[in-house]
From TrEMBL:
TauD/TfdA-like domain: residues covered: 28-316
Transmembrane segments: none
Broadest EC class assigned to this enzyme: oxidoreductase
Pfam families in alphabetical order: TauD
PANTHER family attached to this UniProt entry: GAMMA-BUTYROBETAINE HYDROXYLASE-RELATED, TAUD_TFDA-LIKE DOMAIN-CONTAINING PROTEIN
Protein name: TauD/TfdA family dioxygenase
EC number: 1.14.11.-
């Protein structure tokens, strides 16, 4: 074990296959402990990209909300969500609704928005029987590990996210935009550089182009930052993809990703991205009461398949404008 040398020392365990884990004795007052150790906790996140705090004993939603608020300057309201969440309090959500037997592969939360969260906060109230870890991967190492050709192309072109909002699959218009009013939705899309088309049946299709590589606003590292693999059709289970294509057609999938010039991303490229993520994945099984802090720019995260009940609460904070995290030409040439 290594021990932080900060004024409020933390007992931090470092293993190559897991995120940094701070082991603590359960405090009598969790909220006060969090406030007292805020700077030490945040310093560990800056140093390691993610920190799992074990021993807090988090058990209640209100308690989690109080802890999240002590660690941030305020929680974000999620916009452009791709799947439903339950909101317990402003900025305090359930984890994304997603089939338990299907993985949510590595991604950076809301990396397709113009202002993505810089910090993700997760709290486990109920641990699953098996699986279900929120694993992490270092985005700077992912970028360095990718072969030259796809790295250069994505750094040069960025990536496209296409979405078709339906009532059957994914988040509804109101869940994504906070309103079902067409005028307000159109205003949001124009303000956030999203191309949109209303279909004859009333559904909405959108396209947005975003950088695939950004510079970390604090460390200056170039980071692979996107949801190219996670939201691509080839990451879906084959039977799910076949069903969705039969139902909506190739161009009408609820979500899909493309190269920045609009051309399709092949199955081989998506497989390469997911294999590179897996080579750099660090995981630690959830225990009830755990807190996980993730630097959303530097660190990708996933949700692995699980069995049993799993309740993980989520908060997002400290938005960073992508325009202030310009991708660099050097990133594509390393």
């Amino acid at each position: 074990m290594s021990t932080s040398s900060l004024a409020a020392p933390l007992d931090v365990e470092l293993r190559p296959d897991a995120p940094a884990v701070a082991h603590i004795d359960t405090p009598a007052d969790v909220t006060s402990w969090t406030e007292q150790h805020r700077e030490a906790l945040r310093a560990q996140v800056t140093e390691h990209g993610a920190l799992l705090v074990r021993g807090l004993g988090l058990r209640e939603t209100d308690q989690v909300g109080a802890v999240f608020s002590r660690l941030t300057g305020g929680l974000m309201t999620e916009r452009e969500s791709f799947a439903p969440r339950q909101e317990f309090a402003p900025g305090l959500y359930s984890s994304t609704t997603w089939p338990a037997n299907q993985p949510m592969c590595m991604h950076h939360e809301l990396s397709y928005t113009l202002a993505a969260p810089g910090l993700m906060l997760f709290a486990c109230l109920t641990a699953p029987d098996r699986g279900g870890a929120t694993a992490v991967a270092d985005a700077a190492r992912i970028l360095q590990a990718l072969p030259t050709e796809p790295r250069e192309r994505f750094a040069r072109e960025g990536w496209l996210l296409t979405r078709s909002y339906t009532d059957e699959i994914g988040a509804s218009l109101e869940e994504s935009f906070g309103t079902g009013d067409r005028t307000e939705i159109e205003r949001y899309c124009r303000a956030n550089d999203i191309d949109f088309t209303w279909q004859p049946d009333g559904t909405l299709r959108t396209t947005q182009r975003r950088p695939a590589v950004v510079r970390h606003p604090v460390t200056g590292q170039d980071c692979w930052f996107n949801q190219i693999a996670f939201l691509n059709e080839w990451t879906l289970a084959p039977e799910v993809r076949e069903y969705l294509v039969d139902l909506y057609g190739e161009d009408g999938l609820p979500f899909n990703t493309r190269f920045g010039d609009g051309s399709p991303i092949g199955e081989d490229t998506v497989r390469l991205l997911n294999e590179t993520y897996e080579e750099h994945t660090r995981r630690e099984p959830w225990q009830a009461g755990d807190l996980l802090l993730v630097d959303n720019i530097r660190t990708a995260h996933s949700r692995e398949p699980f069995t049993g009940e799993r309740q993980v609460l989520v908060g997002m904070a400290e938005p960073h404008r992508l325009a202030d995290c310009d991708p660099t030409s050097e990133a594509s040439q390393r």
